[in-house]
Amino acid sequence: MAFLRTSAMLGLAMAIVLMLPLTGQALTLSDFPEIAEVGLTERVVTDHYSGFAISGYDPVAYFTNGTPVIGTPQFEAIWNGAAWRFANAGNRVAFLANPTVYAPNFGGYDGEAMARGVATAGNPKFFAIQGTRLFLFRDAASRTAFLTSQDMSLKALSAWPSVEETLAD
To answer: What is the pTM of this model?
Structure first.
């Protein structure tokens, strides 16, 4: 149930909320555990307007297409407290089978800033695949600094656990 499409969940929640004045009942997010788990985490970078992880871009497409691709409402899933979109059903299936392979390292926070121990949101348009991991960066300069430094990746990996502890679940 945790992987229900977010659009369907939100539609159901809106229908119920619209009916509340008629029934006189009060509901809370605990009555909708699938909805309650979405968007309340800071451990994954989400768009402030849409609420989708990495601004609705398909995390699998970085590996299959080599470029950022916007996901669609037809292919959504919930993982790690965030709603994710995908460009097609195959990418959704691949992600759900092994999300830690496709999700961006450091929850989508900028790798260069992470090396300094700072959680700065990455921009899905500035990315790199290093080894088998996806990294996002706030801008081109940050990406270049990260990729050209011999030890920045190790510093970021070392800093991430401490920074992650400061972020809300």
So the answer is: 0.78
Phi, psi of 83 (to 5 degrees): -90, 135
End position of a domain, from candidates 62, 78, 101: 101
Pairing of strands 133-137, 72-79: unpaired
Instruction: Confirm if 43 and 98 have CB atoms less than 8 A apart.
Output: no
Assess whether 85 and 167 both reside in one domain. no
14: its two tokens: 């809106």
- pLDDT tens figures, 72-97: 999 999 999 899 999 999 999 999 99
Instruction: Indicate whether 123 and 159 sit together in one domain.
Output: yes
Which backbone phi and psi does 154 adopt, to 5 degrees?
-65, -40
**What sign results for the dihedral spanned by CA atoms 44, 47, 50, 52?**
negative
